[in-house]
Design a protein that fits this description.
about 450 residues; alpha/beta; N-utilizing Substance Protein B Homolog, Chain A; Rossmann fold; eight-stranded mixed β-sheet; 12 strands
Length: about 450
């Protein structure tokens, strides 16, 4: 258990000091520590659980310490966060949670820091999480600020999620959504169509999805030669909605414009292979382009992976493609279950910066379409400024050249069982998946056809 705590602490430190991504770093640290089974599971729970509830724990630590967080040595603060999570949200024995966290603080910052951490954690351990939350929310200046502390979501994200739900007439689901963001997601697998078969419990919606009985999925990925892989069910569905929108005509040409890290690209490649289509991929970041090449390697289809600005590439290839996937860079607010640190790392200003790029990518993709071709605009975010607003802006600018298709019907057509997809109040055809409603990431999909 001590090694598991050390692994979780290393991940916390890397996230807070160098903006590391927990989902990329944690597996490497687990392997480096040589832990597996229950210890690896504990390290995962400690790292992800602490990051998910960071805002709540910080409010409790501030109250228990009687001082502002910026006056606490950063390594000590991370040790306190790790200890608070164990005390308030796990079955770890309180004495172990305190002693090991104190040891981490002492090793990082010396004996006095250890004494300080001991006093703070013992104070936290005197009450349960419900009592602490009631105490620290007494001074909340608004209902949203209170909800922010209770659910560990920044206020601006709470308001954005409420607006997105309200656009479907479902704002009463906000509490369920916030709770789903704080629950550890089930690992979902994808079997590349035509190359592998789902080998486990089938997922409710995706025809390529399944779940293993538990444990590390990596051995199953290796045994399959990469023909099965970890992939969120929502990610599978939005890719298949494009590839199966209409029967594939041999000789079609497809493009994955923002392909990294390659999960959707691999699905597109398998579908293109089955239908006799050709596929190009593009990813501007060199490291992520390498991940794309690795993801598509198991598919016996020649796919050229470009490393260019997608806006330039698409604009230069006017009228070249029948189907284009624009999996646009976004805030990632739809994947807070799996990337918990994103909620603390992103700011409202990021939305405006990304929206400019998103609109330009979608506009360029429409230029690259053949008449009659279709673009799937996808984000792993439900924020209306990254979803409905982008589609509306581009469609209005393009005028009669473009028509929006019914993305909800396209998803229903590929789903194994009916999806609960209410129509947006604006009458548009786009679709939004949700973790609390569908058990998927909050994937947004719009389908735009260039008129003949």
């Amino acid at each position: 258990m001590q090694l598991a705590r050390q692994v979780a602490f290393v991940v916390l430190r890397a996230v807070t000091t160098s903006d590391a991504y927990a989902n990329l770093l944690l597996p490497r640290e687990i392997e480096r520590a040589g832990i597996a089974g229950p210890d690896a599971a504990l390290a995962t729970e400690l790292a992800y659980g602490t990051l998910r509830r960071l805002g709540t724990y910080d409010a409790i630590i501030r109250a228990a310490a009687g001082r502002e967080l910026d006056t606490i040595d950063p390594p000590v603060l991370d040790a306190l966060r790790l200890g608070a999570h164990q005390l308030l949200a796990t079955r770890v024995a309180p004495h172990a949670a305190v002693n090991e966290s104190v040891q981490l603080a002492r090793e990082e910052s010396g004996p006095r820091a250890g004494g300080f951490a001991n006093a703070v954690l013992r104070r936290i351990g005197q009450d349960d999480v419900t009592t602490w939350i009631a105490r620290v929310t007494e001074a909340a200046r608004s209902d949203d600020e209170r909800l922010s502390i209770e659910t560990a979501h920044p206020v601006w994200i709470i308001r954005a999620l409420r607006r997105a739900l309200a656009a479907e007439g479902r704002d009463g689901e906000l509490t369920d959504l916030l709770a789903a963001d704080n629950a550890a997601p089930t690992v979902t697998m994808a079997a590349l169509p035509g190359l592998a078969e789902p080998d486990g419990e089938r997922t409710p919606y995706s025809p390529t999805g399944f779940r293993l009985g538990g444990g590390d999925p990596e051995p199953a990925v290796r045994r399959s030669g990469g023909r099965v892989r970890v992939q969120d069910e929502g990610s599978q569905l939005v890719a298949l909605a494009l590839t199966r929108l209409t029967p594939v005509a041999p000789g079609e040409r497809w493009l994955d414009l923002c392909a990294g890290p390659g999960g959707k690209t691999a699905l597109l490649a398998a579908e293109a292979l089955a239908g006799g289509a050709a596929l190009d991929a593009n990813e501007i970041a060199h490291a992520r382009a390498g991940l794309v090449r690795r993801a598509i390697a198991p598919v016996p289809l020649e796919v050229e992976v470009h490393e260019r600005d997608g806006r330039e590439l698409a604009s230069e290839r006017a009228g070249a493609y029948d189907r284009i996937l624009v999996d646009a860079p976004c805030t990632g607010l739809g994947a807070l279950r799996r990337r918990p640190e994103a909620r603390w790392r992103k700011q409202p200003s990021d939305v405006a910066e990304l929206a400019t790029i998103q609109a330009q990518l979608l506009d360029a993709a429409l230029t690259a379409l053949k008449p009659g071709g279709v673009v799937a605009y996808v984000t792993c975010s439900p924020h209306l400024a990254e979803t409905a607003a982008i589609v509306r802006e581009v469609v209005e600018r393009r005028g009669d050249e473009v028509e929006e298709l019914d993305a909800r019907a396209a998803l229903q057509a590929v789903a194994l069982t009916p999806l609960d997809l209410p129509a947006p109040a604006d009458g548009s055809g786009h679709a939004q998946l949700w973790p609390h409603r569908h058990g998927t990431d909050a994937m947004f999909l719009a389908l735009l056809r260039k008129r003949v």
